[in-house]
From TrEMBL:
Keywords: Amino-acid biosynthesis, Histidine biosynthesis, Hydrolase, Methionine biosynthesis, Multifunctional enzyme, NADP, One-carbon metabolism, Oxidoreductase, Purine biosynthesis
Designated name of the protein: Bifunctional protein FolD
Annotated ranges, domain Tetrahydrofolate dehydrogenase/cyclohydrolase catalytic: 18-131
Source taxonomy: Bacteria, Bacillati, Actinomycetota, Actinomycetes, Micromonosporales
Binding site for NADP(+): 176-178, 246
Species whose genome carries this gene: Micromonospora endolithica
Gene name of the record: folD
Biological process annotations from GO: L-histidine biosynthetic process; methionine biosynthetic process; purine nucleotide biosynthetic process; tetrahydrofolate interconversion
Domain Tetrahydrofolate dehydrogenase/cyclohydrolase NAD(P)-binding: 150-293
Complexes and interactors: Homodimer.
Pathway: One-carbon metabolism; tetrahydrofolate interconversion
Length: 302
């Protein structure tokens, strides 16, 4: 744990909680685990699937492939045309399921209109689900069983631990109940672990007086996916504010947390370079752990 990379937001007093140093630390651990696997003759493989012509998605896939190569992963890639059918996508996933040399698989989201991402995910072998979003993995998370964790929730827990923000016994409020962030994050942060163990409340924006909940949070995680929804008047003075929820306009990030919240918060994730980098790092952590599980190397916990 280190606070050496934390800086203070100019004119506000809130400490910044950047994600980049957290991601670097996680990726360094992943690189060691990859090296150990390769030394034992196993080349961990993270397969990626891109459907359609979305420029932003193609860019993210390129970044992940470059990173995979730097870390020592093999990264087979399948690109399907925008005209691909659900059956085409499911066939690709079934092929990766059957390939013992592929340990982890990622389908870049979103898929073109007409395809169902969630239904495709259900075809994937849960043990190869690098995003940690398969229903079986959600069930494992709910029960505290080992398995790939959803990347953004896991990244948020790691970010807070890295910056020395204690959660145990503290009041954490998650604004948003979505399947990719709010719901799994609440399950994760309530677990009995030193870096979690929080008193977690989930409130959603359909609750008319949701600010009543967010204003009492010691740690507030915005997970609503509504740009700018969290404003200073929704934040308890001195609270830790994490911007987890984002919308994208192409590659432009539209965060939930208005930057003016830094006037009130004690610590806050930056608009850019906060949770995002930790999400990608967790993806590689899930991938190397999937490879370790597949070859039966040391028991890997959550
Ligand atoms: N299968 C998946 N699809 C998608 C995921 C995912 O995790 N798995 N997430 C996003 C896209 N994405 C990775 O794929 C991604 C997007 C953005 C970032 C990031 O770190 N962004 C920066 C902001 C950059 C800027 O605005 O200048 C940040 O948050 O600081 C990481 C990953 C959708 N699809």
């Amino acid at each position: 744990m280190s606070v050496s990379d934390s800086t203070t937001v100019a004119r506000s007093g809130a400490r910044l909680l950047p994600g980049a140093p957290v991601a670097r630390q996680i990726l360094a651990e992943v690189a060691d685990e990859v090296a150990a696997l390769r030394a034992s003759g196993v080349v961990p493989a993270l397969a990626t699937v891109l459907v359609g012509d979305d420029d932003a998605s193609a860019g993210y896939i390129r970044i992940k492939q470059r990173q995979a190569a730097e870390l020592g992963f093999a990264s087979p890639h399948v690109r399907l045309p925008a005209s691909a059918s659900q059956a085409d996508l499911c066939r690709v996933l079934a092929d990766f399921n059957a390939d013992a040399g592929v340990h982890a698989v990622l389908v870049q989201h979103p898929v073109p209109v007409g395809l169902d991402y969630d239904r495709a995910l259900q075809v994937l072998d849960p043990d190869k689900d690098v995003d940690g979003m398969h229903p079986v993995n959600m069930g494992r998370l709910a029960l505290g069983l080992p398995g790939p964790l959803p990347c953004t929730p896991a990244g948020i827990e790691a970010l807070l631990a890295y910056h020395g923000v204690p959660l145990s016994g503290r009041e954490v409020v998650v604004l948003g109940r979505g399947a990719t962030l709010g719901r799994p994050l609440a399950m994760l942060l309530a677990q009995k672990r030193p870096t979690a163990n929080a008193a977690v409340t989930v409130v959603h924006t359909g609750v008319a007086d949701w600010p009543r909940y967010t204003r009492r949070a010691e740690v507030l995680v915005a997970a609503a996916g509504v740009p700018g929804i969290v404003r200073p008047e929704h934040v308890r003075p001195g609270a830790v504010v994490v911007g987890g929820g984002v919308r994208y306009a192409g590659r432009r990030l539209l965060p939930d947390v208005d930057e003016s919240c830094a006037r009130v918060a004690g610590a806050i994730t930056p608009r850019v370079g906060g949770v995002g980098p930790t999400t990608v790092a967790m993806l590689f952590r899930n991938a190397v752990r999937a490879a370790r599980r597949a070859v039966g190397s040391a028991e890997v916990d959550q």
